[in-house]
Structure formats: C-alpha cells, structure tokens
Amino acid sequence: MKVKLILPALAEAESPFWRPIKYSLFPPLGLATLAAFLGPDDDIDLQDQHVEKLNLDDQPDLVIIQVYITNAYRSYQIADLYRAKGCYVILGGLHVTSLPKEASKHADSIFLGPGEETFPQFLKDFKNKVPKKVYSSSIRTLTKLPPIRRDLIKRYKYLVPNSIVVTRGCPHHCSFCYKDAFFQGGKSFYTQLVDDALAEIDRLPGKHLYFLDDHLLGNAKFASELFEGMKGMNRVFQGASTVDAILRGNLIEKAAEAGLRSVFVGFETFSPQNLKQSNKKQNLKKDYEAAVKRLHSLGIMVNGSFVFGLDDDDKDVFKRTVDWGVQNAITTSTYHVLTPYPGTKLFKDMEQQNRIITKNWDLYDTRNVVYKTTNLSATQLKEGYNWAYKEFYKWSNIFEASFNHESHKHKLKHLLYSGGWKKFEPLWNFLIKTKNLNNMLPLLESILSKVNYKPNLIEINSKSPLKTQM
C-alpha cells in the first residue's frame, strides 16, 4: 500500500514576517508516530511543506494530512485534490477535533483527538474495506507504542531533529488553550512509561534534545524518574514548564542535573485579573521573579511566553512587559496576540458575547486581532505587539539583559542565543537553502553547555505574592 503523510505549511509561511528558521526547527513528529503503525511492506512518503516543495502529482492509496488552524484551508485544498484522484484521505489534528463538521466535508475519514489508539483500528477497518467516517479517541495510553519512524524524517532539513514527546496534554485548563478540546472524551494528561521514554532517548543520535511536551514537569513522579534515568546520558535538552512547577520542590534541580539548559515558561500575563479570566490558576500568587532567579541560579535560560489583549490590559502593558523581560534577563520572549481558537472556552465565551469579528482561520496566528477588544483598540493591540518584539530584540536590550546575569558564562550564552536567534536572519536563510542547517547543532550544544552554579543560594517561597503588577 502506498501511503502519504503530509504536514501542509501554515499560512504564516507566506507572510512577509515569516522566518524560515522558525519553521525549520522540528520535524512532523506526530505523523512519524502514526507511520509506526504501518506495515513493513508499505511504501511511505512523509512530506513537510515548511521545508520542502510538496509533490502532488502522485496517486497514493492513502493520504494522511495533519491540520492546524492556520493550515486548514491549504489542508482542505490538498485533501480535495487527492480525493478527486480517487485516493482515500483522512484528516486529523487540533483543528479537525475542534471543527469536525467543517473538516469532514474534505475527508473520507476524520480523527478526533490523539490517534495512537484509533489509527491502528482504522488500518484494520481500511484493509477490510469497512472504514468509518469518524474515529474518536477515548482510550488514552502510551504503553506498547512502536518506535517512531524517524527514518522517514529528513534530519538535515531541521535545526532540532531530535525533538521528542514523552507525555500528552497538560494537567491545567487555561481558557485560551487550544489543546483542551483535543483531549476531550478521555484523559487530558498522561505519560509514557519511564523506561520507554528512556529507550526513545537512547535511540536518538547526538547530544541535544528538545522536549515538545506542553508541560514536561507536569507529573512530578514521572519527571523525577525520567531525569534520574537521564543522568549520565550526556544530554543537553530544552523543554517547557509552569511557574508553579519551577517553584515547587526540587524537581527543577533534578532537571538541571539531567541536562535541562533552556525552558519555555508560560508567564502569559502579570495581571491577577487576567489570570483569573484565563483560568490560569497555576500562576496566581506566584513570584515570577523568584522563578526566574531560581532558573538562572541553575544555569537554565528562559524563554518567556506573554499574551497581549486580555481584558485587563492597557496601552502601557507592552512597555512594562518588555522592561520586565530585559530587567530579569529573559533570554528570549515569545509574544502573542490573544487568539480565541475554536473549541476553547475563550472562543465560546466570546462568541456568546458577539466579540468574534472574523472566522478566517488564516488570521488565527496570534499575530492578528480577531475579536472585539476592550481597553485597547485593535490597532493599539496590533501595533503594541509589533513594537514589543522589535523593542525586546534591539541590540541595546539584548546586551542589557545579557549583562544582568551574574555569571560571565551565562552573559555570553544569553548574548549568543538571543542575538543569534533574532539578528542573523540572512545567515539562517543561507544555511536552510544550502541544506547546512543541521551543521549548526554543535554550536547550539555548545551554547547550551553547563553553567556552574551554587544551589540553595536563593530562598524560594512559593507562596510569596506577585512582585510585579502589570
């Protein structure tokens, strides 16, 4: 059987603000995971439109397309093209689960939620010529999964080919989070067996890893055993965590000892009212500065995530957010315009309040304003978002933030990582075009090398009040 797996490019890929390097980081791991369930005699082609031109002249027996909100229209066009040829097309992913009626018009079968249980069942049905129109996930487990088909991934096209996911979902339920709808009907957060996760890590070549889990520290027992097992594996890795998990216990120390060198933290907003509105309870009454200091004391760089446009935001929120990031030596900042994704509580609330102004999914990229704002006008929000990115990554602010670290090595790491990520776009583009992107991995590993630290110098009180009000 000829099988084609496709990740269509996001709409942002055609934007003048598109950064090719941003979409050349991680391979389509979800599709490679599904491919593991296919047979050894199947002819499999996995294509990622972000890094290659799609070949649409073929006629496979089965076409599998992963759909996100801003590649939805492109996904539907590709699906319609293949269905017109007589190919059997299935669609799955976040957007399909959020809007199944919309997606079903363009597919022979759709998949709602994770596919580890439903895809093997589909393959049995397909071979018996009795496939269902809808497959909905209810059993949530990561045990006894076949190894991911990493042989299908074109490693040389990605800066971080060693991406890995050892958990699914998140234990928290923020009102704007796209993932909540995806995991309805079953467990919303679950993990691999530790031994299986360690075996997957052991199969990966090189030194660097990037955990794409929404919350790597979300299950303390699992994470503690994982980090214990990673000791001595000589890995450096990046991942994501919440402020609460960083402040609680000594799990973050165990992560650092295992090789954690950079962490994505969802600060989102410093306004308690905004946190309540977003149901981001895990951040309420947490000391953001203490969390950052604790990470820095462990030699861990911080990628802070911030959302603009929540109802309590005013016109000064952009400057306050940038200033806080620079003063606290945040290595990189990721800013978002609040986006009410379909399937989320935020979308339902705004739709009931008649605040949704467009359902053009191409605009739901966290760069555009798609809802009626309150304290800020749509123009102020959009311009403030653009200004924040430009201001935070000014050379003067990169240098200032770098020199706010105590360790000289951490100052240099910050400067190289932050400056290199945002200030050398022509070089990244050249490396991508000449297929040399993967050759930058040794430099990345060097930047992520260990910074010597003295633990327990900072007294952390997880119940301390929020220092910075915005």
What features would you describe in this structure?
With 470 residues, the protein is α/β, with parallel strands linked by helices. Helix content is 36%, strand content 15%. Helix 5 links the parallel strand 5 (109-112) and strand 6. Helix 8 (220-230) packs parallel to helix 10. The model is unreliable at 455-470 (pLDDT under 50). The protein is globular, with a radius of gyration of 22 Å. The chain has helices spanning 29-35, 72-84, 94-98, 100-104, 118-127, 179-182, 194-203, 220-230, 243-247, 251-258, 272-277, 288-297, 317-327, 345-352, 378-392, 395-402, 408-423, 425-433, 441-447, and strands spanning 2-7, 43-48, 62-66, 88-92, 109-112, 134-136, 163-164, 167-169, 189-191, 208-211, 236-241, 260-268, 301-308, 332-337. The N and C termini lie far apart (57 Å). It has a six-stranded parallel beta sheet, sandwiched between helices. Strands 7-10-11-12-13-14 form a six-stranded parallel beta sheet, sandwiched between helices. The protein has two domains: 2-136, Cobalamin-binding domain (Rossmann fold); 159-448, Alpha-Beta Barrel (TIM Barrel). This is B12-binding domain-containing radical SAM protein. Keywords: Iron, Iron-sulfur, Metal-binding, Methyltransferase, S-adenosyl-L-methionine, Transferase. Residues 2-133 form the B12-binding domain. InterPro entries: BchE-like, Cobalamin-bd, Elp3/MiaA/NifB-like_rSAM, Methyltransferase_Class_B, rSAM, rSAM_horseshoe, rSAM_sf. GO terms for molecular function: 4 iron, 4 sulfur cluster binding; catalytic activity; cobalamin binding; metal ion binding.
